[in-house]
Amino acid sequence: MSRVIMQSPAGDEFYPVRVERSYFKRGDAIVEGDPLYDLATANGRQLRIRATHGGRAVSPPFEAGDFLNAPESLLEIETGLHQRARPDPQPVKAPAVPAWDDDVDDKVWDEAARQRPKRDRRKVLLWLGGGVIAVLLVCVAGWFALSYMPLATDSAETGGYYGARAGLQPLGGKRRLFVSDEQQERFELWLGS
Amino acid sequence: MARFLTSFLLGWLALFLPAAAGADGNRLVEARGQSYSASFTAPTADEPSTSVLIWDADLHMALENDAPVLTARFRYEIEDWRYLLPTFGPGDVQVWSPTGEAGARLPGEAPRIRPSDVEMMFRFYAPAQNSYVGVSQRIATPGAPGEWVENPPSRSGWDRTFIWLSGINKDAWLSPETARSVWQGELRPEGVEIVQAAWSADELTTFLAVNNMRNRAVAAAEAVNRLLDGVARSFGYEVAAMREDPQRYLEPAFRRGVPIALLRKLERLQNLPNGLKQGDAAAYEQARREAGAIMAAMERATDAGERRGAGAGGNGQPAGEGVDE
Q: Is residue B56 predicted with pLDDT exceeding 80?
């Protein structure tokens, strides 16, 4: 059985601090992570103080409207005593959540209270790799489709008088999609010379 | 019209009335400046072709061993013409005329459609019978314009000498006795006309098949375009600006040669150097084969047209202008 004293936030810029709300009474059972106080600081921030340890409150809370002019004890928690009474006692350990948060909005606080699952770097890499491969596959499939896709100029219907009588077939084979300017110029020179 | 009227008058002036009727029974009938207008239809044409001839004819009538001997000679000039002939290629029928409307002018050396199997009827009045009789003569091969062509003397006998042109026996042969009587009596030449003639376009058709490069130019343009399709697919070249318009080669209707630039383009496309063939050459090789097939199709069509043209022709129908009445 031991006692833990929770101090108000350190930092001169916060003071004086006004107590906006308190969430417990003396003798209440305190569970780690429970909100204890909402504080309004001198620099305009709003802080929510949470219990860093579970136990029972052995000191009375500050009342709403009280001012703290310097860091001082906010709550003294007696740990161990109530752990025996609890059906599923929690071992005393280092606080898993910060003692205070500067966003007093309940929603924000509740979201922040849940420990955000840490992203698995391996999964991220797998997703990225899979995406790159998928894009490459799409590009290759597109290239393949374009290479073999018949276009209008490959049709047997040339519109010519003799072409219609020569039994033309749609042009087959693989299409070359790009040609360098230099190669194009060489071709034009060959035809034009 | 004035031309035909002039021909008509000249024909009458030139027609010599009994030129000779000696004791030996020889007669010579000469007709000059006759006009004959004919129309005939080529096999694949809807409209008839027309041709106007100015022609001369002589008929020599003599007795040999108391049997009639008839000799005719004939010459003609083509006064005017308008031919509608198959093209062997794009377009159904090509109109050819001396004025060359729409570029359809035949070259000077091109043969004209000539008459053949010209059947003439020399018309006489026989006062003793108070009837008209005729002497029919056929010129199988009139020859070239301006040349006299003489028939070999015909000895067909008295029963095949004169034809009734009037009376109840019209179009029947005169009996030998009557024919002899008519011959020995007075015969007044009344005129001569071409009853019918055949027209064959084979010479002109052959000339066009051999010398007119219009269809070859059209086929070459189509072959160039197919080869460009092939190089575009196989080797990726941009060919839109190099394409040929086959319609451009439809006029003039007679083309002495294929433009050398077009031929060179075709030849170069058919023989691309290896350095320009980077890619899958399947489409290019196919286009090369098809370009050859296009040229072969043109050759086949021309040959077929030439054969078809050899049979083109028909009997001319006299239009009556300038024909003796």
A: yes
Measured in angstroms, the CA of A138 and the nearest CA of chain B are apart by 22
Q: Does B237 touch chain A (CB under 8 A)?
A: yes
Element (DSSP H or E) covering residue B199: strand B188-200
Facing residue for A176 by CB, picked from B236, B268, B297? B236
> Do B242 and A160 make contact, defined as CB atoms within 8 angstroms?
no
Q: Which of A177, A119, A169 is nearest to A145 (CA)?
A: A177
What is the enclosing helix (H) or strand (E) of A140? helix A121-148
Q: Is the pLDDT of residue B43 over 80?
A: no
Q: Are B279 and B226 in contact (CB under 8 A)?
A: no
| Cis amide bond preceding A9, omega within 30 | no
List B residues 25-44 in contact with A (Cβ-Cβ < 8 A).
Answer: none
pTM above 0.80, yes or no: no
Contacts of A27 (CB under 8 A, 6+ apart): A56, A57, A58
Give yes or no for residue B1 having a pLDDT over 50. Answer: no
Helix, strand and coil content of chain B, in percent to the nearest 5, comes to 35, 30, 35
pLDDT at residue A110 tops 60:
no
End-to-end CA distance of chain A: 103
Element (H, E) at A85: helix A81-85
Average per-residue pLDDT in chain B?
A: 85
Nearest-Å Rg of the Cα atoms of chain B is 29
Q: What is the DSSP string of B4-33?
A: HHHHHHHHHHH--SS----TT--EEEEEEE
Q: Mutating which of A146, A153, A162 best tests the B interface, going by the most B Cβ atoms within 10 A?
A: A162
Q: How many residues does chain B have?
A: 325
